[in-house]
Amino acid sequence: MIALALLALVGLSAALTWGARRYALRRQLLDQPGERRSHRIATPRGGGIAIVLTVLAACVVALMMDPAFLPPLGLVMTGLMLVAGIGWWDDHRPLPALQRLAVHLVASALLSIAVYLVGENLLQAVLLFFVTAALINLWNFMDGINGIASSQAIAAALGFAWVMPVPSSLAALCVAAACLGFLPFNFPRARIFMGDVGSGALGYLMAALVGLASLATDIAWPALLLPLSAFLVDAGFTLLSRMLSGQRWMEPHTQHVYQRWVKAGVSHARVTAGYFLCGLLGSTVLVLCSPLGPTQQGVATIAWWVALTALWRVQRGRLRDF
């Protein structure tokens, strides 16, 4: 029964992506090639709305089955609609960064309140606020080549689903199913891009899964971020290096390691596959250390973060001319 429901979500997401592509072509919502982009032909954008609507449909079904979820889940859904809504607007008519950030912060606060209502842990809620605001923008920064944002979300969602008990794990599987329906339209050849409506929403959903896992398990926060480590390391250190060098870090650029690989001549498919494998490894480390005690969890987590940071520095050095 659960498998059929997940397949239905995959089908719904695929159908909505197809509809989003037709809408984008009709409205001429196209991403044009440019110096700061990694694609070579004009491509429709906004397909991520399919992921958002599919997840919202799953949330409605969950509420119909158990209305007791309404207070926290209602806040989560509202935050998701705010992030997706401002992204949808930005896909149609670009908005100033501060306006988008203000909406992202409101959505982050709603998600934090939802987690606080369930767990009644103020520190947990405050941590999630900052994690959510960061992931919304981080996923947007990293959505630059075919399939990378949605495949990375699938890898992370599978890791969260493994370590969480039912029914919490079903939420992660629903996110993975929604991304899986979109993925064939974006990888290996992009017939539509996710757009800000999808990338920001996916970052929000990843934060929601982190918050849910912090409630449903005893896993420490640094370990809960392991499935997201590939994006966190590449985006975090790239943005830090831009800040330290005095560059306008909020502007679009092609300095992330994944973008430099593409500029060096590696195909989108190979780069995305590499990041997907890294995401799966991060999720695997989470799964393996989840039954361990706090000390062992900490050692495994630190070892993974150090190894991934070292790998990023090596690759960044090799690709410094691109």
How would you summarize this macromolecular structure in one to three sentences?
The chain is globular. The chain starts with a helix and ends with a helix. It has helices spanning 2-27, 49-65, 70-92, 97-119, 122-142, 148-163, 168-182, 195-216, 221-224, 229-244, 257-263, 268-289, 294-318, and strands at 30-31, 43-44.
Key structural traits:
single chain; globular; two-stranded antiparallel ribbon; 322 residues; mainly alpha; 74% helix
Helix content: over 70%
Low-pLDDT stretches are: none
Number of strands: 2
Give the overall shape: globular
Mean pLDDT, all residues = 92
Cα gyration radius (Å) = 19 Å
Spatial gap, N to C terminus = 49 Å
Please give the order of strands in the largest beta sheet: 1-2
Written as H for each helix and E for each strand, in order along the chain, the element string is: HEEHHHHHHHHHHHH
Number of domains: 1
Please characterize this protein's 3D structure.
The chain has 13 helices and two strands. It has helices spanning 2-27, 49-65, 70-92, 97-119, 122-142, 148-163, 168-182, 195-216, 221-224, 229-244, 257-263, 268-289, 294-318, and strands spanning 30-31, 43-44. The longest helix has 26 residues, at 2-27. It is globular. The chain starts with a helix and ends with a helix.
